[in-house]
Structure formats: structure tokens, C-alpha cells
């Protein structure tokens, strides 16, 4: 049986990924410090509690389990927080990944799936965005991931690291079976916030920015269902086992949804018109991010199957209601 070590395996995408690998016949080990993850989200293998920046803890986990592959999700991912506290992002996301890569290579674990981001592109000069689009981040979160991608390239050239770099657009939705879902404290993600405003009295959903150069003035994002997203990781793992090197893929749908359109989708699913307020743009937010995901289709055989905005909202709303 093949073994995967999933860093950040108690988090939102990491926990969904653990399930996907387990269902594909892999032995799964979750590594997480639980600062932003959830112990009860670890259901498909053991949990190793440890920080990604802790050299001894990372080394011990790798020595104990000798994984065939590491899927790396252990990162902070709040754009606004990264602007306010960039040092957190460079230490955890960039330095933490360096610790992981060094310890992997020391014991001969040379295969990595990297959770990266469309935030590394910055403000797009063309749309949809393909993998050759220039990377020019506009916030520390994007820069922290850009730096990690350069590490992967350099360590591949110098030491033979093999990797699939997956640049996510907007991960959204929840496990249709209800076993895991999206939880953050504090909650800053747009779909959970919109659902909360629809379901709980007294909550108001704030639209940040109505003057973007988009079809209705609100920001456009390419939402991809988390179950589609993690299926791409399993396909990426299979590719790495047969095809060494560094491979980069966008994960998105090629379809953008404005915040106003998202509000409409949540209203339809919940049967309640969201109470909405309007605020200024958030620092570091591009007006539109939409993927060209044809390369992932051609080389991984990956196609999103559950990523229509109504299906995304349906599964997210079901998860939220289970927890009320």
C-alpha cells in the first residue's frame, strides 16, 4: 500500500484530501499542529501533532512513516491577515516548507504535491489565466507561495526533488457525505459568511468592493468544489509515481462568479434573501481571477464535476446546517 503524509491534514482542504487518498487505496498520515485545523476532521489515518517549522518533529514523522509522497497543505491562507502580519506568512508558509523539503530530501523522500495558489499571479494581464501567465503577487500570502514555488524549482535542479504544483483558484463547498467541511476561526471565507448571514438572524453579509472593473462591479472568482480539487491531488500523486520532474497545474473551472451572483446562489439555496451591506475593497484583492485549466485536463485527466456554484453552495449549506 502506498503511503502519503498530508501536512495540514486536519484543515479544510487537507482533511478532504485525506479522505480522497484513503478512498483511492492509500495509507494516510495527517500531520498538523491543530492551530487552524480540527482533531475531529482526522478520520482516515493517524494524526501526528507537530508544527511545520519544528525540524525535529517533521524529521521524526518522516522517519517513522517513510511516505511515498508528501501532500503539503500546512499554510496560512488569509489574504487580509497576510497584509497585516506578513511575518507569520513568510515564517509558516515559506520557512516551514523549507524545513519540510530539507528533511524529506535527507531521508530520500523526493515526491511532493504542493498546495499553491492563483494569488501568485497577482492582477491578471489576461484572462482566463493559464500556467504561463507571469507571476507577480500583490499580497504577502501570494508572495509566500511564490517563494515556495521557487524553492521547489531550485531543489529539483539541485537535488532531484519531484513535485506537482497545484495553483488553486477558490476552493469551496464541503464533502457531500457530510464527514468533513469548511471551518475557520475567525471565518473570513466568502461562502461560509454568506451562508451564515442567510441562516442566522442578525447577521449581515458585507460585499467588499462594488467598483471593480467587472460585469457588476463586484469581484469575480473561479470557485472549484473541494471534492473536485482533492481528486486532482490523487491524480497528481499517481502522476508523480510514474513521471518525475516538476509539473504545474491550475485548478479551476474557467468560469467566474461575481460576489453578487454568489449572493443570489445562497439566496436560492437557503430560501432567504441575504441581508447585505457594502464596504470598501480589501487590501490585496484583484478584481478577477479565473483559471484556464486545460493543462490539468490534458495531463492529469482532471475535470471538475461538482463545481457549479449552486452545487457548491448546496453542499456548504448542508454542512453548516448539520452543525447548528
Automatic annotation (TrEMBL):
* Pathway where it operates: Carbohydrate metabolism; galactose metabolism
Output the Gene3D superfamilies linked to this UniProt entry. NAD(P)-binding Rossmann-like Domain (3.40.50.720), UDP-galactose 4-epimerase, domain 1 (3.90.25.10)
MF-aspect GO terms: UDP-glucose 4-epimerase activity
Keywords for this protein: Carbohydrate metabolism, Isomerase, NAD
Q: Which domain of life is it from?
A: Bacteria
Keyword Signal (UniProt): no
- One Pfam match, given by its short name, reads Epimerase
EC class:
isomerase
Q: Which reaction does it catalyse?
A: UDP-alpha-D-glucose = UDP-alpha-D-galactose
What CDD domains does the annotation carry?
Answer: UDP_G4E_1_SDR_e (cd05247)
Q: Does the keyword NAD apply?
A: yes
For this UniProt entry, which residues form the secretion signal? none
Q: Tell me how this protein assembles.
A: Homodimer.
Q: Its family?
A: Belongs to the NAD(P)-dependent epimerase/dehydratase family.
Output this protein's name: UDP-glucose 4-epimerase
What is the native source organism of this protein?
Mesorhizobium wenxiniae
**Gene label:** galE
Amino acid at each position: 500500500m502506498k503511503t502519503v503524509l498530508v501536512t495540514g491534514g486536519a484543515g479544510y482542504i487537507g482533511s478532504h484530501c485525506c479522505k480522497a487518498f484513503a478512498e483511492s487505496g492509500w495509507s494516510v498520515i495527517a500531520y498538523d499542529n491543530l492551530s487552524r485545523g480540527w482533531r475531529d476532521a482526522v478520520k482516515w489515518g493517524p494524526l501526528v501533532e507537530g508544527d511545520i517549522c519544528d525540524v525535529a518533529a517533521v524529521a521524526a514523522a518522516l522517519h517513522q512513516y517513510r511516505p511515498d509522497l508528501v501532500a503539503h497543505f500546512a499554510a496560512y491562507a488569509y489574504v487580509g491577515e497576510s497584509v497585516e502580519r506578513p511575518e507569520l506568512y513568510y515564517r509558516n508558509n515559506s520557512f516551514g516548507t523549507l524545513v519540510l523539503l530539507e528533511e524529506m530530501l535527507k531521508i530520500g523522500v523526493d515526491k511532493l504535491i504542493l498546495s499553491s495558489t492563483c494569488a501568485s499571479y497577482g492582477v491578471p494581464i489576461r484572462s482566463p489565466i493559464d500556467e504561463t501567465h507571469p507571476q507577480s503577487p500583490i499580497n504577502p500570502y501570494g508572495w509566500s507561495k511564490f517563494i515556495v514555488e521557487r524553492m521547489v524549482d531550485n531543489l529539483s535542479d539541485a537535488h532531484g526533488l519531484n513535485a506537482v504544483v497545484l495553483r488553486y483558484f477558490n476552493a469551496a463547498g464541503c464533502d457531500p457525505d457530510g464527514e468533513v467541511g469548511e471551518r475557520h476561526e475567525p471565518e473570513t471565507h466568502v461562502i461560509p459568511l454568506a451562508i451564515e448571514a442567510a441562516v442566522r438572524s442578525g447577521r449581515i453579509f458585507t460585499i467588499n468592493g462594488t467598483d471593480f472593473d467587472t460585469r457588476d462591479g463586484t469581484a469575480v472568482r473561479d470557485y472549484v468544489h473541494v471534492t473536485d480539487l482533492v481528486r486532482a491531488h490523487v491524480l497528481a500523486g499517481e502522476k508523480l509515481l510514474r513521471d518525475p520532474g516538476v509539473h504545474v497545474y491550475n485548478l479551476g473551472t474557467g468560469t467566474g462568479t461575481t460576489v453578487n451572483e454568489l449572493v443570489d446562489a445562497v439566496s436560492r439555496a437557503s430560501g432567504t434573501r441575504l441581508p447585505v451591506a457594502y464596504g470598501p475593497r480589501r487590501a490585496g484583492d484583484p478584481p478577477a481571477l479565473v483559471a484556464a485549466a486545460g493543462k490539468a485536463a490534458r495531463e492529469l485527466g482532471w475535470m471538475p464535476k461538482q463545481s457549479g456554484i449552486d452545487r457548491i453552495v448546496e453542499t456548504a449549506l448542508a454542512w453548516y446546517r448539520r452543525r447548528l
